[in-house]
Write a structure and sequence with these properties.
Elements: H1 2-20, E1 24-29, H2 37-53, E2 58-63, H3 75-81, E3 86-89, H4 113-128, E4 135-142, E5 147-150, E6 165-168, H5 171-179, E7 183-186, H6 192-197, E8 203-206, H7 210-213, E9 222-225, E10 237-243, H8 244-249, H9 252-260, H10 264-287, E11 291-294, H11 297-320, H12 325-337
Parallel strand pairs: 1-2, 1-3, 6-7, 6-8, 9-11
Antiparallel strand pairs: 3-10, 4-10, 5-8, 5-9
Helix pairs in contact: 2-10, 4-10, 4-12, 5-11
C-alpha cells in the first residue's frame, strides 16, 4: 500500500511538472501587415526576448492585419475583453476615451520619436493610469516626425492647405488639420491607400516609416517637410497593452519577465526604431521621383501660430473632465524639450 501511495504521488508530481512546463502562448494582435516595422523590428524581437528569458515558458502567436477580426479602433477593447492577450494600437482611435495621453499628439511638441516615447511613458505613470483600467500597458510610443503629403501642390505656407481634404489619424490631429485650413478626414491607417487612390482625400499627414509599407509613395506627388531643429508638426501616440487578467494569471517569475521588458526603456527603443526607419523610407519616395520641399523656419512660425489654439482647447477640455490639463501640457513640453 505504501508503495502504491508513493507511486501515485510520483505520478501526480510528474503530471504537475509537465503541466508547469506547458508554455503560455500570448495572442498578440495589431493592424499592420506582417511586413511592417512594427512586427519585424519590434514585436518579433520582443517575443523572442521574452521567450529566451522565460526558458520558452512565454511564447507569442502574432496576428497581424486584424486577423482576429474587428477593426483597428476595436483593438483596445479586444485587449480588455481578452479576445487578444496583447494588442498594439492607437488610443486615439477611440476619440476621447484616453484624455491623459492625448497630450503627446499636440502640434509642435516632440522633436524625435525616441525622446517623445520616453516622455509618453512618464506622462502615463503620473497622469494616465486611471484611463487604462483593464489593461496593463507595456509601452507607449510616438512615431517619427509627421509630415504633409498630398497630390495637389507643394505646401510651403499655411494658406497652401486651404481647401484640401487631408486624412488624419486621431481627434487632435484632425483638430490640427482644421486649424491649418484644410478639411480633416478621419480614418485608420489601413484605409488610407484606398482613399488616396480614389481621390477621397487629397493628401494625408503621416510619418515616413509607414509610407512605403502601404505603398503610398507610389500614389503621392508632393512631400512637404518640417525638419530639425524645428519641432515636428505632430506625432501620434501608440500603446502596446496586455490584458490585465492575463498578466495577473502569470506566476511571479513570468510576471518578472514581462515587467523587465516593459516601461520607459522599451517605449524609447520603439521610438528609436521609428527614428531610424525614416531615412530609408523617405529614400523610396525620392527614388520614385516624387517632389520634395522643406517648410522654412519663418513659415513654420505661421504653422505654430495657426495651431496654438489646439493646445488651448485641449487644456480646457481635459480640465473640465477633472484632469490637470495645464500640468500635463507643461510636463510633456518639458520632457520633450530634453
Amino acid at each position: 500500500m505504501h508503495k502504491k501511495i508513493l507511486t501515485a504521488l510520483a505520478l501526480a508530481a510528474g503530471a504537475m511538472a509537465a503541466q508547469a512546463q506547458q508554455p503560455v502562448v500570448l495572442k498578440v494582435a495589431h493592424f499592420w501587415p506582417p511586413t511592417a516595422l512594427s512586427q519585424q523590428k519590434v514585436l518579433e524581437p520582443w517575443c523572442a526576448k521574452i521567450a529566451k528569458e522565460s526558458n520558452n515558458e512565454l511564447q507569442c502567436q502574432i496576428y497581424p492585419a486584424m486577423q482576429l477580426g474587428g477593426t483597428p479602433a476595436q483593438l483596445i477593447q479586444q485587449a480588455i475583453d481578452g479576445v487578444a492577450d496583447i494588442v498594439w494600437t492607437l488610443p486615439g482611435y477611440t476619440a476621447g476615451r484616453f484624455p491623459s495621453m492625448e497630450v503627446m499628439e499636440l502640434p509642435f511638441l516632440t522633436k524625435d520619436a525616441e525622446g517623445g516615447s520616453r516622455a509618453a511613458w512618464a506622462i502615463y505613470e503620473k497622469y494616465g493610469q486611471k484611463d487604462f483600467a483593464g489593461v496593463k500597458p507595456l509601452a507607449f510610443h510616438v512615431h517619427d516626425r509627421g509630415q504633409i503629403h498630398n497630390n495637389k501642390r507643394p505646401i510651403t505656407k499655411v494658406s497652401d492647405l486651404k481647401g484640401l481634404k487631408m486624412r488624419a489619424p486621431t481627434r487632435l490631429t484632425n483638430m490640427m488639420v482644421a486649424a491649418l485650413g484644410a478639411t480633416p478626414v478621419a480614418m485608420p491607417m489601413p484605409q488610407t491607400p484606398d482613399a488616396v487612390s480614389k481621390g477621397v482625400v487629397d493628401g494625408y499627414v503621416l510619418p515616413w516609416e509607414v509610407i512605403p509599407t502601404m505603398k503610398l509613395h507610389e500614389m503621392t506627388k508632393y512631400h512637404s517637410e518640417i525638419n530639425p531643429p524645428q519641432p515636428g508638426l505632430y506625432t501620434t501616440l501608440f500603446t502596446i497593452a496586455m490584458n490585465q487578467a492575463k498578466y495577473d494569471s502569470l506566476p511571479p517569475h513570468l510576471k518578472k519577465v514581462i515587467d523587465a521588458n516593459s516601461g520607459a526603456d522599451f517605449s524609447a527603443s520603439i521610438g528609436r526604431a521609428w527614428d531610424e526607419s525614416a531615412p530609408p523610407a523617405r529614400k523610396q519616395a525620392i527614388e520614385h521621383g516624387n517632389q520634395f520641399n522643406t517648410i522654412g523656419a519663418a513659415e513654420v512660425e505661421g504653422f505654430q501660430k495657426a495651431t496654438a489654439s489646439v493646445a488651448d482647447r485641449w487644456v480646457k477640455e481635459v480640465t473640465a473632465k477633472g484632469y490637470d490639463g495645464k500640468g500635463m501640457l507643461e510636463m510633456a513640453r518639458t520632457l520633450s524639450a530634453k
